[in-house]
Amino acid sequence: MVTQKQIARQLGVSQSAVACALHPTLHSHISSHKRQRILDTAERLGYVPHHAARRLTRRRFQQPSSAFDQAGLIYFGGKSQYLDPVCLAMIFGAEHELSRLQASFVFVNVGTPGGWEKVDRMAHASGVDGWLVYGPMDDEIVSRLKRGRLPFVIVGDHRCTQPVNCVHMDNAAVGRLAAQHLASRGHRRVAFLAGNPAYVYQPEMENGFRVARKEFGLDEDEGLILDLRRWVGESRLMEWLQNAEPRPTAFFASEFDLAADVCRILKNAGMVVPDDISVLGYELGQLGPKSKDISRIEAPMTEVGRQGAALLHRIVAEPGQPPREVKIAATLAEGRSVVPPQTPRTNPA
After folding, report:
1. How far, in Å, CA of 18 to CA of 42, rounded?
2. Of 4, 107, 136, 275, whose CB neighbour count within 10 A is largest?
3. pLDDT above 50: residue 92
4. Rounded Cα–Cα distance for residues 68 and 92 (Å)
5. Under CATH, which number does the domain 171-299 receive?
């Protein structure tokens, strides 16, 4: 392994000069020409910074630093060993950005025994330079994280009332995009299949859809907002559809992976998608299921993770900035499940 001492010997300079040149904040103590010579030689010899030693030095001398060598992800996954696809997608995006920044990545599940103790231990030992946090976040958890004195960024939705650094989907814009797209295809009676309101994104998405209904001239019949907890199951959904008068010409399925189930239920009832009714889904982008048959709004969760890591790097490099909220836009992927409404047929028996 190449050391700073070897680089210094190669160039005939002091080891302290090499240390300054390679340090993220101390390089101003030497000339730019000398620093560039050191950097070029370090790259040619294959020098890799000893991040653990650097963090140990910061801890020993209690030095604040803008160095960004290692970030961690705190996952509030409960006792289950299951890692949900949304988190996996965000990890993928965060790791890509951290690699670009030449930083490494560690993972801590605080739902497992000793999880919080591991977080406290790593913070005390300067094991990471900052945290990404995913899960059911609230003010109590934020207060606990602040006691660790490390910067953190929440990735995904949260219920915090205080300002925090966060990156999440623009949920209201998802509902608006659904209404806009279906209206642009000529639909006026659109049923919104609403998921569990305990999840932050669901009421925000529903509110965006409600506002957009009026903007784009959709029917504002409250009976078209369906609570999936009540209408869950194949028979219940078809029961509602049989009694709907007039029948909706399109569904927007607002939960991940729900659109495919809706299409299957309609097919089993003898209905043809999209001839009898159009279906627009909401899917996990990039790492989620791909079906050219289903028109969908895609949530790029990898981008949430990537921008979360980028924001964490920014607040480590520039401490003292006010908290920042970043909203990620969804994208529309047109399939074959949405067409202009056809002449209505008889309701299914």
Report:
1. 9
2. 4
3. yes
4. 19
5. 3.40.50.2300
E strand or H helix at 283: strand 278-284
Task: Return the domain boundaries, the chain.
Answer: 4-48, 70-169+303-328, 171-299
pLDDT of residue 235: 77
Tens-place pLDDT, residues 152-177: 999 999 999 999 999 999 999 999 99
Whether residue 31 is predicted with pLDDT greater than 60 in this model: the reply is yes
Tokens 């299951």 belong to residue: 82
- The fold of the 70-169+303-328 domain, in CATH, is Rossmann fold (3.40.50)
* CATH architecture entry for 4-48: Orthogonal Bundle (1.10)
Residue 210 CA, distance from chain mean position: 24
pTM of the entire predicted model? 0.80
Smallest CA-to-CA distance from 150 within 133, 167, 136, 168 is with 133
Residue 298 clears pLDDT 80, i.e. is over it: yes
Contact 309, 97 (CB under 8 A): yes
Contact 200, 257 (CB under 8 A): no
Q: Do domains 4-48 and 171-299 have the same CATH topology?
A: no
Contact (CB, 8 A) for 289 and 296: no
pLDDT, tens digit, 9 for 90 and up, residues 16-28: 888 888 765 555 6
Q: Would you list the DSSP string of 187-235?
A: ---EEEEE--TTSTHHHHHHHHHHHHHHHTT----GGGEEEHHHH-SHH
Distance CA 120, CA 307 (A): 25
